[in-house]
Specification:
Helices cover 4% and strands 31% of the residues. With 498 residues, it is mostly beta strands. The chain has an 18-stranded parallel beta sheet that branches. The chain has a 12-stranded parallel beta sheet with strand order 4-7-9-11-16-19-22-25-28-31-34-39.
């Protein structure tokens, strides 16, 4: 069922929509011209004027006088709302405003270099017939985005966008910037970098919020096809390329960032999950062959905090992870994690008892191939980055992580038992398979406490632990130990005050 169009002010929402303006704001007329030497112009609150401006910019592709153009929406005060159909009729009326061969088809498409859209605070509201939905795989076309990026050094800034099936989508090119955008009515993903995307891109100073109730007359559909909350899957999906994600707020969504390929940097982002529901925020999720740097991020009340899987390599420095339901860091498959100077603190009630999977501030789970350097390299003293011995100059962590297990209930600093035996437990409709790391099956006793088998290769030297008693560190590592915690010290009480 297609979502109906809104013709009035929504009764609720985190980002309150201004009165829907169905016509161009009085006095606002496009100043965008066909002369390719023009570097800046303004448009009114109209999809028609926007498409005309984008088409003119794209028409200048290859023109020697083109140096880029900033298109600014004359949004007024309070800023206007722009209804966007993004359909075949609009695309046909301005043939060079879209990229019809893309799955996003009728989106505004930046083909030329240096096209910058400044929204002036305007709200871009999708009112077309595409469904606001999530799909198990990629949703079938057409799935309009607000903007598809295909040039180089293009940008979108200072706007709110709601109910677009594909949000903002980087298909190709380098040096794109997405800054100061907001969305709390997310469908599939708010922002996507495609496998064909280039490097040097930036997502900055933006606010993306999930788990919100759709406005009256609108629907957000789950993968099952059932109606549900908006924004329950991913905020930023990284399928390739390279991006710096900096100073963003990404709240109440299962995966604030999911990367499955490419080289990316995440700096000083903030995420808050739920204090009552352990599933609203799952984790920052990185799967192979992603190469990730995470520095100075703050993550609160998420299930796993930072999750590393398959062949991903993650360098995590100076992050703060508080109140994880099950783990601050969770490593599976043959993932590699190098972590230094992170601060981790358990919930006041300890880890949740709602799930029987392994829990701890650092967890290696389901696959002994994982390698973790929380100080002094992996268990063998080798760098997980370059495989060089730390003593021989390998790229190794200096430790300095703070394990603050200061609450009540179950408190585990490091869990390193990866061979939790598989029983006849269904995970996503199939029998649990420990090798694939798809779930954490129960053992014969009905709880996932592991057995006497091996664990991952974990080095966690030169860190402090807040133990609240004896022993200093709480490490679950059965059989022949593969966890090294040499040089452990008791955290000063103030060290866990964050």
């Amino acid at each position: 069922m297609s979502p109906r169009r809104i013709r009035g002010r929504p009764a609720r929402g985190l980002l309150l929509l201004p009165l829907l303006l169905l016509a161009t704001r009085a006095g606002a007329v496009s100043t965008c011209v066909s002369d390719c030497t023009q570097t800046a112009c303004t448009v009114g609150c109209s999809e028609d004027e926007l498409r005309d401006a984008v088409a003119k910019a794209n028409n200048c592709l290859g023109n020697g006088g083109w140096t880029g153009r900033t298109i600014t929406v004359d949004a007024g005060m309070p800023a206007c709302t722009i209804p966007m159909l993004n359909d075949v009729a609009k695309a046909n009326a301005w043939p060079n405003s879209s990229c019809p061969s893309d799955p996003e088809a009728y989106s505004l498409c930046f083909k030329n270099d240096g096209i910058r859209l400044r929204g002036g605070g305007a709200v871009f509201l999708y009112v077309g017939d595409g469904l606001c939905r999530q799909c198990t795989e990629e949703c079938p076309p057409p799935q309009p985005a607000l903007v598809t990026f295909r040039g180089n050094n293009d940008g979108v800034e200072d706007l709110t966008y709601l109910y677009f099936p594909e949000g903002l989508h980087v298909r190709a090119g380098t040096g794109h910037t997405i800054a100061r955008v907001k969305s709390d009515r997310i469908c599939e993903d708010a922002i996507t970098l495609d496998v064909t995307a280039g490097t040097g891109n930036t997502i900055a100073d933006s606010t993306l919020v999930g788990s919100t109730t759709p406005d009256p007359g609108r629907s957000c559909l789950l993968p099952t096809g059932d109606a549900g909350l908006c924004g329950t899957d991913k905020a930023i999906q990284l399928n390739g390329g390279g991006v710096t994600i900096v100073h963003n707020t990404i709240d109440m969504i299962s995966q604030p960032v999911h990367s499955q390929a490419g080289t990316h940097t995440l700096l000083a982002n903030t995420t808050t999950g739920s204090a009552s529901d352990d599933n609203l925020c799952q984790s920052y999720t990185f799967t192979g062959p992603s190469v990730i740097t995470m520095q100075g991020n703050t993550i609160d009340h998420c299930k796993f905090g930072i999750h590393v899987d398959s062949s991903a390599l993650v360098r995590a420095d100076g992050n703060i992870i508080t109140n994880p339901w099950l783990a601050a860091f969770d490593v599976r498959g043959d993932g590699r994690l190098r972590a230094e100077g992170n601060r981790m603190r358990t919930r006041s009630t300890g880890f949740t008892t709602l799930s029987s999977v392994q829990s701890g501030l650092l967890v290696a789970r389901n696959d002994g191939r994982a390698r973790v350097d929380f100080g002094g390299g992996d268990f063998a003293g080798l760098s997980v980055v370059d495989d060089t011995p730390c003593a021989g100059g390998g790229d190794c962590s200096s430790g300095l992580n703070r394990f603050c297990s200061s609450g009540t209930g179950v408190q585990v600093d490091i869990w390193n038992v990866t061979d939790c035996p598989c029983q006849n437990q269904l995970c996503n409709g199939a029998i649990g398979n420990c090798t694939l790391g798809s779930c954490a099956p129960l053992d014969a006793a009905g709880v996932c406490l592991g057995s006497a088998g091996g664990g991952a290769s974990i080095g966690a030297r030169s860190n402090c632990f807040q133990s609240n008693g004896d022993p200093l560190t709480t490490v679950r590592d059965a059989g022949s130990s593969t966890t090294a915690v040499d040089g452990a010290t008791e955290c000063d009480p103030s060290a866990c005050d964050f």
